[in-house]
Amino acid sequence: MAVRIRSPLRWVPLALLLAATAVLSGCLGMGEGPQTTIVPFSDHAQRIQDLYVLVFWMAAGVFVVVEAALVYATLRYRRRPDDVLPPQVHGNTRLEVAWTIAPAVVLFVIAIPTIQAIFAAATPPGSDGLEIVVTGHQWWWELEYPDAQVVTANEVHIPVGRPISFTLKSADVIHSFWVPRLGGKMDVVPGHTNHLYLTAYQAGTYLGQCVEFCGLQHANMKLRLIAHTPEEFDAWVQSQQAPPSQAAGKAQEGAQVFARSACVGCHTVAGTPAQGKIGPNLTHVGSRTSLAGAVLDNTPENLARWLRDPQEVKPGNQMPNLHLSDVDIEALVAYLESLK
Amino acid sequence: MATTVPPETGALGRVYPVLWSWLTTVDHKRIGILYGTTAFVFFLVGGIEALLIRLQLAVPDGKVVAPDTFNALFTMHALTMIFLVVMPLAAAFFNYVVPLLIGARDVAFPRLNALSYWIFLAGALLLNASWVAGTPADVGWFAYAPLTERPYANTHSADFYVLGLQVLGVASLAAAFNFMVTIVNLRAPGMSLLRMPIFVWTTLITSFLIIFAFPVFTIAVTLLLFDRFFGTSFYVVARGADPVLWQHLFWIFGHPEVYILILPPMGIVSEVLPTFARKPLFGYPFVVFASAAIAFLGYGVWAHHMFAVGLGPVANSVFAATTMLIAVPTGVKVFNWIGTLIGGSIRMATALYFAVGFISMFIIGGLSGVMHAVPPVDWQQTDTYFVVAHIHYVLFAGAVLGLFAGIYYWFPKFSGRLLDERLGKLHFWLTFVGLNVTFFPMHFLGVEGMPRRIYTYPAGMGWELWNLVATIGAFVIALSVLVFLANAFTSLRYGQRASADPWDGRTLEWATSSPPPPYNFARMPHIEARDVLWHWKRERARRARETKAGEHTRIAGGAVDELDLATLRGERIHLPRPSIFPFIVALGIVLAATGFITSYVISAIGVAYLLAGLYGWAFEPAG
Amino acid sequence: MEHATTFEHGAAAHAEPTATGLDNRKLLMWVFLGSECLFFGSLIVTYLVYKGRSLAGPYPHEIFDIPYTSVSAFVLLMSSLTMVLALAAIQRGDQRGLRIWLLATALLGSIFLGGQYYEFTSFVREGLSLQQNLFGSTFFVLTGFHGGHVTIGVIWLLSLLGLSRMGLIQPQHSLKVELAGLYWHFVDVVWIVIFTVVYLIP
């Protein structure tokens, strides 16, 4: 059964080896990105990961067996100069039955834990759960903690070890809420209220973003999820509940600019006349780590850049260029950064 | 070809006889060539769109195109490749090959067939006119409401989507009706259903899928059209509507559509493998049954595109189960293809390379599909590059490789010349390497959490390397297409002449000349077996063995050689008369659609054309 | 060899017997009606999904006049009977009967359409427009789609009537009448479904 292989097919095994090396090296690099889906940090993500590992290895096994059979059949039965007509085999019913049943069995093995996981993921937490209402907007996230009466944007703060119940709503089109390291995505559908339950294992900052195409700036509708120890989380809640510190000096000039500009039409700063609901709540914007839908780090330079021309940073977003003077921008930056 | 000049020719026909003959042709072979050529032009358009997408994403913070352009590029790339490339390329094969495979002189309704093509062309041009108008469709190919409603899509971009796809849907439906009737009714005597070549089966099943899937989409789009133009609120949430209705209607069409795209290439592969392995298809009835089962189950799996929508655990479990079930007949097909190769005497022609390449790559797409069938896994993978990898393994590495197998296989039948095998193999290897370099890394990107449809991404996400690799791969694919074009153009002119039966074929198309005469077959064959030409050749060989050398006796039927069905021996053959009316009707339809974007006056003119065309059609004198 | 070929429309349609024995055009009509089921089905499902979701009136129970619509439904049903009689007439070569019954069918169809027109206008007067609410949108699009089918059917029947007067429908052409009949019966049956789903089920 010597397989005589002539050019160029003699390269096939080598090519397969190379491809396998490339794939393996690719696989080895997986799991390090900030949005990786295969390194779970919550019960929800772990449940998915367990299934993924099962399905992945089953698929990998099937892949190797079937591809090997295909490559073997093709190379082994290549036509040779002395070939006569091969036996005219039309089929084999036993084989057909076997290879109908075998995959069905494999799939059954996958189906059982799948259905278990689907129902487990749909089970809401008990009374110890923390509800967070997430509202998707083109192109930012509004976050509300109904019990604590806290409203913020683009940064979700949660305590580790406590079940979180996300209530997902949309203000406009369909979005999808996703923090990969903490689990799967759930669509945010206008007219519907969806739920996503998870308990984070470990404190840290996790990145996420909208994953349902939602228009021009879909790519820049991001999210940071910050998991705290329970004590840190309580402290964060208290800081958010407190009124923002009284503006002074430069910041006070900024407060005046804010109050007389278009800002108040869209944004809220608790305890001031600014009660707009179109854009993110800015009551504690200075305490956030990011700006503009978690696209920019929250630095005075970035904030100034955003205020100078929001359309330059995020073309098409709903905040117009207010054509503010440099003096006003400087004052506004001081004011907004003071809102801790 | 003298036969294609119509008896009555208008003024245009006297000035431009060639143009006129193509505008009025009702010959299924020429319509097949029109479909194939048009589809290939759009393949290049969709490919350029893909290259621009890959250039933008090659490095973080790409600045090649603006965000709105990027959104248009991925939308138009998908619409082009699905509706203007894979479907019409399959239609090219339906047109050219199916009547030959079943021993018919044409399709059941030749003028309706021409109409399908002209409407398709009109819809394709209308959709692409959106680029010229400056408002290309940019809502994603599945255009989820309410993003397509006035407040969020205020330009004509969504209008072009609605109108272009309406028109294309009419073309697909008309073609599907025609092929359904053709295959059921025009089979040569003796060709029972279980003697039909598999490609005929997959064409029949695809036609059924189109007939029962496209109406749902047409209604979904019509409701959107009413919302956009007549102020209704079918998808307007503020007025009580549910945007998930669009998703259901879309995917009830959209999932069968996936099988509409993949079944014809599967049929092609099922023809190519037996020919080059010199063995019958392993488990023919099981392959037929598996194809039908895939189509049937394909209607019960649509919500697996919606696992993250929040339909609830019961719906997700049911659709997970049906989706897993559909993997079973798909696996059966793959196993039977391998069974066909085993024990064969495989001629390593380019067509076979593409067919085996199709199987090897389709396995990858199929297995990643099984991963998404598990809803929790899908919650991580859906709407990421993992899914982008999956669809491209199914539709590019699957469907397109399968269609190329068909091109290399039937090119000599279309053109009378063989494609160059050396360039063909270069084309294959460049495609094969290029597609894996492009699409395999997308699995990694998806696993690392890169969403699809984002025009930009920052550095530091772990996506830089594989995006760059994918972009390089895309250019390798582009190079492979150039090699193919060079091969096709040189072979058409200088290629080796093809005999009637260059591959030692098994089916009827190889029993007539290359290219076939306008009437396909001078004599109508009688079909005694599956793979009837193979059967005849074996019979002849057997008789030759039985007849001793020198003792030449005539075979039954006198001088007629059953292997040559092309040569006329004084028979009179009725062929359908060329007609300009399909062209006029198609023009009327596209004008009527264009009027929605421009002025209803144009619509009125279009309707006038339409009615005039139909009137002329109805009263066109019979031969 | 080109000289031996001639051109003829629909050569395949009547020159040679088909593999199933069923005429191509008849099979086409059946397949077409199969896809029509999906067209109407999608609209009916849309109507059902949005039933009771309108945020503003008028609502179905405020506006439907079921006895009135029952009469027009009955008229349409009767037209199926006259259609059968038209086909039977041509099959026995009765040109006069064909014309009478075609005219009767077209007339009954027109009465139905007139009834629908009156119904639509009275609904609009009572405040239910296409844009008013989800009920209006789903109702008008569904019943309007059906009305469009009836309109096409009436035009088709009148065309047949014209052809018959020109002597172009002989008994051997009874398929022309039969195809129109298939379409017409389908449109009638669909109306029974729509009438039940939209008007009768509360």
What does this structure look like?
Chain A has helices spanning 11-28, 43-76, 93-121, 230-241, 250-260, 263-266, 300-308, 310-313, 326-338; strands at 130-137, 140-145, 150-153, 155-159, 164-170, 175-177, 186-188, 194-198, 204-209, 222-228, 290-291, 296-297. Chain A is of the alpha+beta class. Chain A is elongated, with a radius of gyration of 28 Å. Chain A starts with 10 loop residues before the first helix and ends with a helix. In chain B, 65% of the residues lie in helices and 0% in strands. Chain B has helices at 11-15, 17-23, 28-57, 67-101, 110-132, 157-185, 198-230, 244-277, 284-297, 313-341, 350-373, 375-381, 385-415, 421-447, 464-494, 532-546, 581-594, 600-619, and one strand spanning 573-575. The model of chain C is unreliable at 1-15 (pLDDT under 50). In chain C, 74% of the residues lie in helices and 1% in strands. Chain C is mostly helical and 202 residues long. At the A-B interface, helix 1, helix 2 and helix 3 of A face helix 4, helix 9, helix 10, helix 11 and helix 12 of B.
